[in-house]
Amino acid sequence: MNSSSELDPEQHHQYHQYRHRNHQKKLVALAQKTFTKPRAYFILLLIVSFILGYLTHSQPLISQSADDLYEHNTFPNQCSDPIPSNQIRQKILDRVFNGTSPFESFPPEQVSPLLFKEWTKGWGSQAAVFEHLIQQVQPKTIIEVGTFLGASATHMARLTEGLGLSSQIICIDDFRGWPGYYDEEKSLKMVNGDSLLLYQFMQNVVNANATESIVFLPFSAGTALGGLCDWGVYGDLVEIDAAHDFHSAWTDINNAYKVLKKPGGVMFGHDYVWAGVRKAVHSFARLNGFRVRIDGEHWVLY
Ligand SMILES: *[C@@H]1O[C@H](CO)[C@@H](O)[C@H](O)[C@H]1NC(C)=O
Ligand SMILES: *[C@@H]1O[C@H](CO)[C@@H](O)[C@H](O)[C@H]1NC(C)=O
After folding, report:
1. Which residue, judged by its Cα, is nearest atom 14 of ligand 1?
2. Which ligand 2 atom sits closest to the C-alpha of 208?
3. Where are the transmembrane segments (predicted)?
4. How far is Cα 183 from Cα 197, in angstroms, rounded to an integer?
């Protein structure tokens, strides 16, 4: 119950005015006590500079155009002049492996017992699209983005050898799997957090007798494709089979297109069933004047 509830309306009003004035006086006294003059000026100055800073900063952000940012959405498309295809293997050995084939004296003694004789897991790695495109393009150089254990790379090695093409297959992968990667059946031999995927991939290449036709760049897709671009290494056939989310697929496709031989080269990829991949493929096709053909689980630009 309010103490003023028994007063008549006029008294009630006066009472409130009195209380209000009294309250103001108390506040002023408190402010005078708390804020000595210099202190008050200082705080006022802080508030004013904050407001000024807010106004001058936020207004241009609202009205500024983003034209200058669009360039970040385009990928440079000029790589070095192409080197002859018969120099590509040596170029990669020189630049990545100090001139020596990584398959020399492989596997190292301590690694050998940790590898599986047979572990060639893959997805759609033997699909008919490989044979279709290898027959069509007769590639001297194949670039694969996303190799995992090398199932499709060794399949392509067999196909090209069968056709007497002596193609060089360049495998790009960081050979780490992916976050959450774990194979219930096989990756139990992890060593201090290393899944040994690189060594197992190499073992699979050895098993397939493909150590001459396959070479690899054990880096992330963007970094490895940047290297090929710098060295003038182009692929007649470029295969994208890495991450499935839109941004990864979009970046991989754009970066890989830089090192696709033009004209005549063909770019294709796996995982058309994934929405992110599909969106990246069709966006790229529309922007660059390609059509998309579906071959099983794969997409082909033509
Ligand atoms: C790279 O090769 C050179 C020349 O053969 C050699 O002297 C050097 O030790 C090698 N470096 C490494 C890290 O193996
Ligand atoms: C690899 O070569 C060896 C010996 O030359 C042969 O026995 C083996 O069948 C070959 N493997 C494949 C997959 O071609």
Report:
1. 98
2. 13
3. 40-57
4. 11
pLDDT digits (tens, 9 = 90+) for 40-52: 677 777 787 767 6
Which amino acid, one-letter code, is at 17? Answer: Q
Sequence-separated (6 or more) residues with CB below 8 Å from residue 139:
160, 165, 167, 235, 236, 237
CA of 228 to the centre of ligand 1 (A): 22
pLDDT for the residue 7: 46
Smallest Cα–Cα separation from 290: which of 245, 247, 254? 254
Q: What is the pLDDT of residue 286?
A: 93
As a whole number of angstroms, the distance between CA 148 and CA 295 comes to 21
In this prediction the pTM is: 0.79
**Distance (Å) from CA 206 to ligand 2 centroid:** 9
What is residue 21's predicted lDDT score, i.e. its pLDDT?
Answer: 56
Cα-based distances in Å from 76 to 3, 173, 177, 197, 207: 78, 22, 28, 32, 39
Q: Which residues line ligand 2 (CB under 6 A)?
A: 208-209
Residue of 115, 153, 111 whose CA lies nearest to 239: 153
Question: Degrees (nearest 5) of the Cα angle 132, 248, 137?
Answer: 20
Q: Residues of the chain whose pLDDT is less than 50?
A: 1-7, 9, 15
Residue 56, ligand 1, Cβ within 6 A: no
Q: Which positions ≥6 away from 225 have C-beta within 8 Å?
A: 145, 172, 252, 255, 256, 258, 259
From the CA of 209, give the closest atom in ligand 2: 1
